[in-house]
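Researcher: Structure prediction, please.
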Amino acid sequence: MLSQSQITLADQFGEQKILDLTKEIGLNERFLLTENLFDGDAVLFEKTIHRLNNCSTRDEAFIFFKNDLAKTFDWNLKSTMVKKFVKLIERRYLNS
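Model: Predicted structure follows.
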């Protein structure tokens, strides 16, 4: 059984701010997100990540997410992949 401090440390590690989405998203995760959310379009995925990286604020990033991405691809906001993607965006703009 893990102690409370170990769980907290693990939780905190998973909640650290992301400075650059392109460096944070691993090869497997990149493939899964591209296939499941971007209809396999790797170029569009890369352009999207670049745009999200360059948003000035969290609000700007989520406006882009909601008004452009989620609507264009008709994403189910309750799906595991969409939630994973949202979590990455949240971590990118943590404390912003």
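Model: Residues 58-73 form the longest helix (16 residues).
Researcher: Thanks, that helps.
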